[in-house]
Specification:
Radius of gyration: 23 Å
Strand order of the largest sheet: 8-7-11-9-10
Largest sheet: 5 strands, mixed
Distance between the termini: 54 Å
CATH superfamily of the largest domain: NADH-ubiquinone oxidoreductase 51kDa subunit
Order of helices and strands: HHHHEHHEHEHEHHEEEEHEEHEHHHHHH
Number of domains: 3
Helix content: 40-55%
Bound molecules: flavin mononucleotide, iron/sulfur cluster
Number of helices: 18
Oligomer: single chain
């Protein structure tokens, strides 16, 4: 069933598009930081954690973990400091919702971050921003200066006695810096190699202290829940499945990124659970140039691939999983029209993951590299039918889910492989038959590395 969009009103994006929306004075004219003042005056940190638990807010960074629950994992009465890391690394292909918030409404993010720090009793927050976001970076620095000058940050936030410093940190320009423990390593000045978990960051995070890592949109939702209440938040989205006690539901608004072959690409706000059709047609004006859709990635490339006849897939935390994809991810939808070759799509995806694998785990380092070499060879007209099963074997065996890697990058590399080949197998077979008519059925070993693209070494 489709979500009714008749009364859809942007909240997270309500201030976007105004020339001064990024300034403190404009933010305050809209009631900005009043919710924070109220919380500091009337609520204890544990009350705020309970409020966020009651809202069933789930993290917007990709994994959908319940935010209040994550906060409650912090050790009680910890004698030393607790740190907060804001994950603004945003490197998932197709994803740019954090950028819009940070460029156009940086104070909304900062207010949400201060609230999250208050709830978790964090004394220091690190704002880890993707290196390639110069405008957002410049606006963050300006917004932080405004906050310190106005007594919103520092020794006594809004005169409450709560002390908080936010340190901006520019990212190291790699996809793996967004994985929470890779981010922590990078923040500590090291190579962003994800850590083996447990211990989870809530127990041992940055500088080996209890640490919370949350996404930019997640803390913006915290600010909106404080201002508008739990009932408002839970009036949007998809309720928990009563038959499944472990399903926390998919509540609240979501920022959907829509790009690729649509008439009006952009970042759109709607309740969780709209279908891909709704996003593409209602918001995106349909597939461009009067063409037909062929496929879409549902939530960043790591989530896999939907066929055009699967566009009734709801974009909530459970939806894409029911269509054979990994999950909702970042809800960044990239649409491909009928002219796109799935061989090219998969080659492009494999190039990304082979380049971004940090190399610690053999199945990920070798699996992504070999998948790329095989796809290069297929594209160069030397593909064999057998290669498809080899590629599927890689897809089925690398990742946290099969239990062979430290982090989820490998799962993200696996899903496009599995979905593209299982959902578009005949296209791959036809391509091989056409480009390698004398050898496509060959079963004996051939060099995987294309001498055409690598000069044979
Ligand atoms: C390879 C990889 C890259 C990731 N990149 C990001 C990112 O850029 N931003 C983000 O918020 N989460 C990213 N995540 C998810 C984080 O590890 C973590 O789950 C998230 O920051 C938690 O925040 P949330 O609970 O508010 O969603 C990534 C995960 C993986 C495996
Ligand atoms: S899964 Fe890949 S990216 Fe993640 S730690 Fe292992 S090698 Fe690095």
């Amino acid at each position: 069933m489709e979500i009714d969009l008749t009364n859809n009103t942007p909240v997270l994006l309500s201030r976007i598009g105004r020339p001064e929306s990024h300034t403190l004075s404009d933010y305050r004219a809209d009631g900005g930081y009043e919710g924070l003042a109220r919380v500091l005056r009337d609520m204890k940190p544990e009350d705020l954690i309970q409020l966020i638990k009651d809202s069933s807010l789930r993290g917007r960074g990709g994994a959908g973990f319940p935010t209040g629950l994550k906060w409650s994992f912090l050790p009680k009465d910890h004698p030393g400091p607790i740190y907060f890391c804001l994950n603004a690394d945003e490197s998932e292909p197709g994803t740019f919702n954090n950028r819009i918030l940070m460029e156009e409404d940086p104070h909304q993010v900062i207010e949400g971050l201060i609230l999250a720090c208050y709830a978790t009793r964090s004394v220091t927050a690190y704002y880890y921003m993707r290196y390639e976001y110069p405008r957002a970076w410049e606006r963050l620095l300006k917004a932080l200066d405004e906050c310190y000058s106005a007594g919103i940050l520092g020794k006594s936030v809004l005169g409450s006695g709560f002390c908080l410093d936010i340190f901006p940190h520019r990212g190291a320009a790699a996809y793996i810096c967004g994985e929470e423990t890779g981010l922590i390593e990078s923040l500590e000045g090291k190579r962003a190699w994800p850590r083996i978990k447990p211990p989870f960051p809530a127990v041992e995070g940055v500088f080996r202290k209890p640490t919370v890592v949350n996404n930019v949109e997640t803390v913006a939702c915290v600010k909106q829940i404080v201002d508008r209440g739990v009932d408002w938040f839970k009036s949007l989205g998809v309720p928990a499945d009563p038959k499944n006690p472990r399903d926390p539901g998919s509540y609240g608004p979501k920022l959907y990124c829509l790009s690729g072959h649509v008439e009006r690409p952009g970042c759109y706000e709607a309740p969780l659970g709209i279908t891909v059709h709704q996003l593409v047609d209602h918001f995106g004006g349909g597939v461009w140039k009067n063409r037909h859709a062929k496929a879409a990635i549902p939530g960043g490339i790591s989530m896999g691939l939907l066929k055009a006849d699967e566009f009734d897939c709801p974009l909530d935390f459970a939806g894409p999983g029911r269509y054979g994809c990994l999950g909702l991810g970042t809800a960044a939808v990239v649409v491909m029209d009928e002219t796109v070759s799935m061989v090219d799509f998969l080659h492009n995806s494999a190039r990304f993951f082979a380049h971004e694998s940090c190399g610690q785990c053999t199945p990920c380092r070798e699996g992504t590299a070999w998948a790329l070499r095989m796809l290069e060879r297929i594209r160069a007209g030397r593909g064999r039918l057998k290669d498809l099963d080899l590629l599927l074997e890689i897809g089925d065996t690398i990742g946290i889910m099969p239990g062979t890697t430290i982090c989820g990058l490998a799962d993200g590399a696996a899903w496009p492989l599995k979905n593209a080949i299982r959902k578009f197998r005949s296209e791959f077979e036809e391509y091989m038959q056409r480009t390698n008519p004398s050898g496509y059925q060959q079963t004996d070993a051939v060099p995987a590395l294309s001498s055409l693209s690598h000069g044979g070494h």
